């Protein structure tokens, strides 16, 4: 770890190009991508990295799109991550396991639809790379207690008294970003009144690299393929959406009762099941910052936009933010501009605004469309799904969206 706790006396100032608040998946990816472009950063995180990567601390998994995988490879993480991810070879989408499903499967020469990674494995790879990177000063178990932005730069005071300076402040603190809120960003937001139940499953049948998205009126039920464990047991990640009014009851269930409910919704597609990870839950809400920049400030990842996990695009949208921001900053710095230049931030905002709105609107529409109960809506949905199944051009569009290969891609996300 490039731990500046031991290098910078209290009250001293060290200037770097960026101060990144939040060293999670998106924040640390930004630091590494920026470092590869010769851009230095302070990364500040209140957590202890050892706690974040402890065995059993986080049972969540993330879908990494083809574009996001390109980003990880382009910043030197490909070899570390290659053996840890499970390829998503196909996606099966169904309305309650009734007839009329869609099967998304790319051609053999097109690669996968993405890869599934345990969040813990992603964190370990990012943290190991960061500790050896001289362009990253990593400040852990501390937080910003003062953030000052002005015409001449940024100054941040940490809870331990140290003072850091930079040209640009980047908020990557997640959904509850205090920096975003302190800056007074306007937000579009609403509550879905649903909760995601997240865990991992062992199952007797192999998943064959297939991700299942099963839609029920109460919410989607996703089974996402993971690599077999060291004992050869088949594994998948589960994201089960339940109505908030039912969530307390589901959380209170014993593991045996929980598994019975899950098995009923799976219709035996993966055989017998048992838990492979801790059960977690979190409320599902939509939020989108109307603007993502201010004076010497850029907001990225979940701090800028949070959506329903229905399409697994949350992390990928944040990584597109990373690619675009690094490209804009590095091009500007080559022209002699500093990272906090208002022209560069305006270009970043313009680039990301349309893409993020389109992805979030599509996700929200899908959530509402499949949440309409009743036989007639179900029949209409299955009719539409059948049409998509029969139209190669339409299937190609949806697959490109899932792989993150549509629209104007930052260079780091290209193959």
Automatic annotation (TrEMBL):
Keywords: FAD, Flavoprotein, Membrane, Monooxygenase, Oxidoreductase, Transmembrane, Transmembrane helix, Ubiquinone
Keyword presence, Flavoprotein: yes
TM helices/strands, residue ranges: 18-39
Family matches, as Gene3D superfamilies: FAD/NAD(P)-binding domain
Domain FAD-binding: 17-353
Stored SUPFAM superfamilies: FAD/NAD(P)-binding domain (SSF51905)
Known pathway: Cofactor biosynthesis; ubiquinone biosynthesis
InterPro entries in alphabetical order: FAD-bd, FAD/NAD-bd_sf, Ubi_Hdrlase_CS, UbiH/COQ6, UbiH/COQ6_monooxygenase
Cofactor: FAD
Entry's family note: Belongs to the UbiH/COQ6 family.
Record-given protein name: UbiH/UbiF/VisC/COQ6 family ubiquinone biosynthesis hydroxylase
Lineage: Bacteria, Pseudomonadati, Pseudomonadota, Alphaproteobacteria, Sphingomonadales
